[in-house]
Amino acid sequence: MAPVSNALCDLHRWIADHHRVFVLTGAGCSTASGIPDYRDDDGEWKRRPPVMFQAFRAQESTYRRYWARAYAGWPRFTAAQPGAAHHAFAAWERAGTLARLVTQNVDGLHQRAGSRAVIDLHGRLDVVVCLGCGERTSRASVQEAMATMAAANLRAVAGVGAPSAAEWNATAVTAPDGDADIDERVIERFAAPRCERCGGLLKPDVVFFGENVPSARYEDARAALAAADALLVAGSSLMVYSGFRFVKQAHEAGLPIAIINRGRTRGDELANLKVEGDVGTVLTEVVGAVPPRR
Ligand SMILES: [Zn+2]
Fold it and tell me: Could you write out the DSSP letters of every residue in the chain?
């Protein structure tokens, strides 16, 4: 492997050589913002795999567990601020040669850093959709409703006090999907939210494991890739097929592919350039020197 400084020079040249770059980002862009990655350097799960959509919809206990953990993880999730990677991508977009940014993250941090050409491939956690009537609401208002219900519910249970701060305080850091580890007894007592209009199940407007990316959104991303002259993957192990298929598509179209990631990825063998390292650190060095488009 080439020394890091050579890799940075190569990446700088690669970025300068392309004028309509399609960027695919993953959890590695948000780790510096305090939202940890799902997987370790070998692409293995670091924590319990996320909930499957089929179980979420069919099993009341899974639904309640999901929302109890999400309720606990939300304050920390929303406190996350854009990091170096997000700012570097926004600056690169302003320079004019980053054509489209497709993110697998659901945290909205690219947009908060100023990126505009974003496709949220797996949706956004700050929006909630009803599986019954399709009504969309803000996650903030569902969070508020859950807080009210939690207080009322716990008052009604004889001998059970309100959960202590420690009970609601996640014992582990939150996950990329806002999940958090909390006490099982707290989960059992938790009243999961329902749609205020029809009583249906509520689901964050994100693509769960076991679900497909909505086809119109996928087609948008695919068209953007077809119009691009290169693909850069940043901070993703590409273990999820919905991201990896863009790398396959780029490879089949003969597009140059570069990858910045800490640890191996499923796309390494298809890449022309691989830079090992933290996305924010690497891009801050390289993008600062991107020439503006003429
Ligand atoms: Zn509804």
Answer: ---HHHHHHHHHHHHHH-SSEEEEE-GGGTGGGT---SB-TTS-BSSSPPPBHHHHHH-HHHHHHHHHHHHHHHHHHHH----HHHHHHHHHHHHT-EEEEEE---S-HHHHHT--SEEETTEEEEEEEETTT--EEEHHHHHHHHHHHHHHHHHHSTT-PPPPHHHHS-SSPPPTTS-----HHHHHT----B-TTT--BEEEEE--BTSPPPHHHHHHHHHHHHT-SEEEEES----SHHHHHHHHHHHHTT--EEEEESS--TTGGG-SEEEES-HHHHHHHHHTTPPPP-
